[in-house]
Amino acid sequence: MSNVPYKRLNKDDAVVLLVDHQTGLISLVQDFSPNEFKNNVLALGDIAKFFNLPTILTTSFDSGPNGPIVPELKEQFPDAPFIARPGQINAWDNEDFVKAIKATGRKQLIIAGVVTDVCVAFPTLSAIAEGFEVFVVTDASGTFNTTVQQAAWARMSAAGAHLLNWFAVACELQVDWRNDMEGLANLLSQRLPNYRNLINSYTKFTAK
Amino acid sequence: MSNVPYKRLNKDDAVVLLVDHQTGLISLVQDFSPNEFKNNVLALGDIAKFFNLPTILTTSFDSGPNGPIVPELKEQFPDAPFIARPGQINAWDNEDFVKAIKATGRKQLIIAGVVTDVCVAFPTLSAIAEGFEVFVVTDASGTFNTTVQQAAWARMSAAGAHLLNWFAVACELQVDWRNDMEGLANLLSQRLPNYRNLINSYTKFTAK
Amino acid sequence: MSNVPYKRLNKDDAVVLLVDHQTGLISLVQDFSPNEFKNNVLALGDIAKFFNLPTILTTSFDSGPNGPIVPELKEQFPDAPFIARPGQINAWDNEDFVKAIKATGRKQLIIAGVVTDVCVAFPTLSAIAEGFEVFVVTDASGTFNTTVQQAAWARMSAAGAHLLNWFAVACELQVDWRNDMEGLANLLSQRLPNYRNLINSYTKFTAK
Amino acid sequence: MSNVPYKRLNKDDAVVLLVDHQTGLISLVQDFSPNEFKNNVLALGDIAKFFNLPTILTTSFDSGPNGPIVPELKEQFPDAPFIARPGQINAWDNEDFVKAIKATGRKQLIIAGVVTDVCVAFPTLSAIAEGFEVFVVTDASGTFNTTVQQAAWARMSAAGAHLLNWFAVACELQVDWRNDMEGLANLLSQRLPNYRNLINSYTKFTAK
Amino acid sequence: MSNVPYKRLNKDDAVVLLVDHQTGLISLVQDFSPNEFKNNVLALGDIAKFFNLPTILTTSFDSGPNGPIVPELKEQFPDAPFIARPGQINAWDNEDFVKAIKATGRKQLIIAGVVTDVCVAFPTLSAIAEGFEVFVVTDASGTFNTTVQQAAWARMSAAGAHLLNWFAVACELQVDWRNDMEGLANLLSQRLPNYRNLINSYTKFTAK
Amino acid sequence: MSNVPYKRLNKDDAVVLLVDHQTGLISLVQDFSPNEFKNNVLALGDIAKFFNLPTILTTSFDSGPNGPIVPELKEQFPDAPFIARPGQINAWDNEDFVKAIKATGRKQLIIAGVVTDVCVAFPTLSAIAEGFEVFVVTDASGTFNTTVQQAAWARMSAAGAHLLNWFAVACELQVDWRNDMEGLANLLSQRLPNYRNLINSYTKFTAK
Amino acid sequence: MSNVPYKRLNKDDAVVLLVDHQTGLISLVQDFSPNEFKNNVLALGDIAKFFNLPTILTTSFDSGPNGPIVPELKEQFPDAPFIARPGQINAWDNEDFVKAIKATGRKQLIIAGVVTDVCVAFPTLSAIAEGFEVFVVTDASGTFNTTVQQAAWARMSAAGAHLLNWFAVACELQVDWRNDMEGLANLLSQRLPNYRNLINSYTKFTAK
Amino acid sequence: MSNVPYKRLNKDDAVVLLVDHQTGLISLVQDFSPNEFKNNVLALGDIAKFFNLPTILTTSFDSGPNGPIVPELKEQFPDAPFIARPGQINAWDNEDFVKAIKATGRKQLIIAGVVTDVCVAFPTLSAIAEGFEVFVVTDASGTFNTTVQQAAWARMSAAGAHLLNWFAVACELQVDWRNDMEGLANLLSQRLPNYRNLINSYTKFTAK
Questions:
Q1: Domain limits for position D137
Q2: If we measure between CA atoms, which residue out of D118, H9, H204, C50 comes closest to residue F23?
Q3: Record's PANTHER family (chains A, B, C, D, E, F, G, H) (predicted)?
Q4: Claim to verify: residue C180 and residue C140 sit in the same structural domain
């Protein structure tokens, strides 16, 4: 009945792709405030760590003006495959990148990057064409302005990509709070100040 | 010819699902002003009562920071099935919740909740996958910001969910004003101040 | 290749439906400024007249608080079928309304009304289900706010409706400026102040 | 040192003026959503009652299209001076209105009304010219759009009016929560859903 | 006590200045939609006529790209002083313009024009410096974008100009509806569609 | 699996269509600021030149108020087919225009124009119906306001058009930076000030 | 010549007041996103520490629904005067609070809090009335919505308060980068992601 | 009568100060789009050249991450005093900068820079305190977001600064188009695309 059947994210079948979150390129992002964007990207990093998802980093010309990958991501994933692309704009055109993905044996790609309309959209469209399920983390992907953002979302959605946000990724992978309540609460509380406030109020009140 | 054939809401085939409208979680909602959101949620409650629709309430960890269900809803539906989920994030993963729905024998699910991208989107996607018609009440469902809202709407719409608002739900169920003109006018007048103003002007003018 | 094949508006196959543009109901519209909305609705009326399209007016309870149809429309179409619905919310549930449409023998419905999510969306969805091509004039249709507007657009678009604006309707029906250049220029100049300015500048400059 | 010395609201020196909150005129308001505006106006009414402030109601042509005063206000202040102005646009031009104010012996005017740029701004400017302190409740005063709102605010502020919101009025009059903690909490909880949520969470948690 | 004492508009002391509403220049205006702006400018013209205020028109290089004055204004004021400035940007630098103002013997200048930051702001600042009271009709004055608008408003307000909107001008000049109720109602009803709707509903209801 | 399979832009199969970027018509555009729009359109022109894509220019009544094509485009493509349409609104109705396209033997149409809902949407829909792949450059296409823009995007997307932005076009055609790094960097640096800043900082720092 | 003479912040004459940043009250803030607000408040805390400014914390009913002070602030200032007000809404009404300020012997108050219109505005107005210079850190102060924010800003500005943002506070206190370049760079880089990116790009490039 | 008497810009008494328009710092600007901001800054540069105004450039740490001055400005003013400040944040604290200004003997300072709240606001406040007239070019000055922008504008305006935009600067200095019609038209046409369109339409039409 539906056009795009529900593909539920599964922590045993998902891999995270972080594309071109570089110190120079991020200065181009204006569809999120810098703090909002930083928080969202690091939240996605937290999720990848928390669920032990294989994670693949890639950059575009990081020796040039685009700048190096933001250090927080590199530190978070010191041993992850890191593909510094020598020139391919679409990361899917880089054999090492695709090999690294295929090496995981996983079919669900959780992707985010800078800029949404190119560094995210191109590999998303290519991966769908090869039969992968692609989940675009819209709030960890940034671009020039909201007009460009909306066109890029429409293009990816029309091609069958699943649009969602980092919080939905975390919750869909977690399935049940009881799998690790403290762990998830801790993750959320670092990235959602109002959730942290709820926890702090609760702790205070129930301690009385 | 169309992709998603018109499924008309029918008061004999519809059930209302109110998911995680809890005092703590609502503080996370920023895509509606607090008053706007409260009014919309209570309007949906009014509709469920007015049309005698079976209504199912559920909460996530209501003994923790998420807080209890907002009292107005609990008071409005004192005898409705109330499923306090012990940990499942997707309400559809809770057997009691799904059983309560199936026990009604109805196939049209009218759903709203907090937050849209998780507590609404997940059961919506699961229910569609099981063959239910799902009608998402977009203005009685809240989340972190409009960017997240738009991605969640896109994901649900792509999967075949029907997006609509509480006023459309009321009107589609009513079919004809003559079924209970005073009742519907009273309902609308509590929740649409400008409609109430029209009625009050009318009453004044025609009383002359 | 495409999902919704191009159905080109044709002045010999189109009929205009103006639904519930009533003096009371219009006070509910807040997704357009009052002047913007009035201008758009009257522009659509101008188009119907200019192309001699059969036009059907309908109202909901015009003896009650919803108020009478706005006089400009009634004056513009003194002899058009005018169906004052006694209670049906979905105009398609009113036999006279549907009969009036079918009596024209036309299959392309150009529809606008107040409010978008109900008075426009319901007959749009019903008509598509019966095989009509429906063209929703989005800027001559108003509702409570843009959140409601966006959900209603999404629902109708998913069902196969064509979303467009009055200017596109005029241009698609005209096909070629040479069919009546002065007539179309006059129409546009009444409703698009910046276009009128272009004409006035041109006239002044070339008269020198 | 400052241009406009701090005039602190004092419940023994303040009077509330509610100007032209009529069922017809309110349909002109588009700088607030209808629910937001209704909530703000009724909150101001609550405040007047709670602090036993003398309150004066006035309307403009309430037998004509402007419509009667909204019933909630009339019910809230059944015995308040009610001046149905026969024609004066600036309420200050109506002798009865000014007499009613002067009869209270108070010098601090808390004013709100529809529309901000006329029904609020004119008496505000006149009263300041006569030596009154005027506190404009900006969120209980509505008008056509935010451009008009901003110009009206600028005009009143330049003339020495104090711009504030209903919540600030309540808090400035209360001075100390201990003067009536339950009373104020109850008032706020009816008009600030997120504050009500805080109270409900707190009650639940501390009851454990 | 106040910084800018209330100067009440008086129909016997006011003159209207319409500056550079030209067919070319108006295409630069983007802080109002074209329809909104046209309606506001013509409303101000209506007001000048209705109160028989002396009105002075001026243009900047109307034989060049700036284009001629919009015909509606020229038609509305066929006998008004019309000063086609040969080059002065600040209309106050044109002797004929200032002479025409001084010939009226009036001290209250109601001004609007295109663009706000130049054609309105410059003569406003000059006139204040010469002791005139200047009332800037903010919504009949347009410019490039709202950032420019806000800076221009701030500059004029700081210099002592009164910022208001056309509706406030009409109401302040009228003083009392009884001075000509039908006339004012007619004026408003042409320019405020929602007010017209109120009148039409009222007429319908009370005719029953 | 996807609805709209990924069609990757290919510089050997693409042709650029620039429709009605005329000096008069552009004054109607209000969904982009004038500078933003000019920059986007010229960027698309730069891309066509850089990749040597066949480019076709067309205008609507350029001897009338719509005005001539903006000179920058004409200068950029002095030898390109230039079809001054004598009256057809939909450029696809003009035989010369379609012939010029077919003469290139290319199947990927990159289109932009003014106004989006007519001059872009009509040929886009017609071309898709004839089997072409159409890539709409959303940020080099302008119209009256964002409401109209959104409806036009929805209509084209539903029909199978690919929505994207000029930067994505450039990157998809380039494939690999190494194909001409300096050339692309130069192009981007003229049209993306923040990218130019990155390059200038880089050059300065590495020169030390 | 100026109305409000420049009072330059001086690290030897300034004291920081953090008012009611409590876990419950912050859930009322909607004029900033939660992340944006958290970042701004903590940045102000960083500044107070960096410049060794005396800092005073105060809360309103922190044993009730308002919740405890956010732990980050308490941890940052373990030894600062902490005044848990038993009921006074205006902190200036609390003798201990004012005494703590006067004990510093400083005359420049840097204030921020929740909510802007009450907890910040009231002590700001009171302090100005007593001759203090008050610097309101607008982006570390939050409230219900931007309409309330704007009215509160206007009220404080009219009374002579200096409106500024945390970044301006840091820079005005620092005077010269050379006073502690690394220290300030480190502070900014924690709170301004784009500034951190500049530093990281620079470090990478110059290390080559 | 006015608070801030009209100080008319005079090309013989004005000097232009361009503060910290550096390749790194500009990446912090988000209250204007990058293209909009670049265009505004270069327009101000054009004005300084066109009127032969003495122009002074200054930078903050241009050998560090802040980056060098944008090359276009350096090229436009190769011989202008260029003060690379070794550490002073407020340019007014740099003796060379103030000396360069005083050396011109001029009293009207036209200032723009990055970021508005610091690099523009600080020298503006200092200069006013020393008796200069300061004209802040609001649209050639950028900062982190509009909230910061608005607070900075309010602070400078309260201190007596004149807020205006580059177009107003150009027009106020020009006084009369006849002083150099072609020159000014050329300047505007490079920076105001819609004005260029007017000129191009005019030229085409009158050439016929």
A1: 14-175
A2: H204
A3: HYDROLASE YCAC-RELATED (PTHR43559:SF3)
A4: no
Tokens 């020196």 — which residue? D13
**How far apart, in whole angstroms, are the C-alpha atoms of residue D97 and residue D114?**
16
Q: Which of E201, E205, E206 to mutate to test the interface with B (most CBs of B within 10 A)?
A: E205
* A101, A133: one domain: yes
pTM comes to: 0.97
Task: Please tell me whether residues B108 and B201 are part of one structural domain.
Answer: no
Q: Domain check: are B120 and B196 in the same one?
A: no
Q: Which residues of F touch A159 (CB under 8 A)?
A: 2-6
A119 classed as catalytic? yes
Is residue A184 situated within a structural domain? yes
Q: Give residue-wise pLDDT tens across range E81-106.
A: 999 999 999 999 999 999 999 999 99
Q: How far apart are CA G83 and CA G94, in angstroms?
A: 9
Is the CB of C61 less than 8 angstroms away from the CB of B163?
Answer: no
% of chain G exceeding 90 in pLDDT? 95
Is ipTM beyond 0.90?
Answer: yes
Whether H1 is covered by a domain: the verdict is no
Of E38, E192, E200, nearest to C23 by CB-CB distance is E200
Q: What is the pLDDT, as a whole number, of residue C6?
A: 75
Distance CA H152, CA H150 (A): 5
Establish if D5 belongs to a structural domain. Answer: no
A32, A163, A199: residue with CB nearest B154: A163
Cβ contacts of A176 within 8 Å, gap of 6 or more: B87, B88, B89, B93
Which residue of chain C has the CA closest to F24?
C198
Segments in chain C below pLDDT 70: 1-5, 208
Cβ proximity of H166 and H40 under 8 Å: yes
Same domain assignment for residues B201 and B165: no
Residue F204 to residue H23, Cβ atoms within 8 A: yes
The verdict on H171 and H187 lying in the same domain is: no
Residues of A in contact with D201 (CB under 8 A): 198, 201-202, 205
Q: How far apart are CA G59 and CA G82, in angstroms?
A: 8
- Count of beta carbons in the 10 Å neighbourhood of residue G167: 25
Asked if G66 and G159 sit in the same domain, the reply is yes
F182 and F162 in a common domain:
no
**Domain total in chain A:** 2
Helices (H), chain A: 34-50, 71-76, 95-104, 121-129, 146-158, 166-174, 181-191, 193-207
- pLDDT score of D207: 85
Q: How distant, in Å, are the alpha carbons of A9, A179, A199, B90, D4 from that of A182?
A: 21, 9, 11, 19, 53
- The CATH number covering residue C156 comes to 3.40.50.850
CB of F55 closer than 8 Å to CB of C145: no
**Per-residue tokens: B78:** 């004192």
Residue D167 · residue D192 · CB < 8 Å: yes
The 3-state DSSP composition of chain H as helix, strand, coil percent (nearest 5) reads: 50, 15, 30
Beta-carbon contacts of C113 under 8 Å, excluding residues fewer than 6 positions away, are C17, C18, C19, C20, C21, C119, C120, C141
Q: Within 10 Å of residue D79's Cβ, how many Cβ atoms?
A: 6
The phi and psi torsions of C99 (rounded to 5 degrees) equal -60, -45
What is d(CA A169, CA A47) in angstroms, rounded to the nearest whole number?
8
**Across the interface, do C34 and D30 touch by the CB < 8 Å criterion?**
yes
Residue B22 lies in a domain: yes
- Chain G nearest CA to F124, separation (Å): 40
Determine whether the interchain pair B147/A167 forms a contact, defined as Cβ–Cβ distance below 8 Å: no
Query: What is the predicted pLDDT for the residue at C99?
Result: 98
**Interface E:H, Cβ pairs < 8 A:** 105
Interface contact flag, G23 A198, Cβ < 8 Å: yes
Helix (H, G, I), strand (E, B) or coil at C133: strand
Q: What is the pLDDT of residues H149-176, one digit of tens each?
A: 999 999 999 999 999 999 999 999 999 9
Is F33 in Cβ contact with E30 (below 8 Å)?
Answer: yes
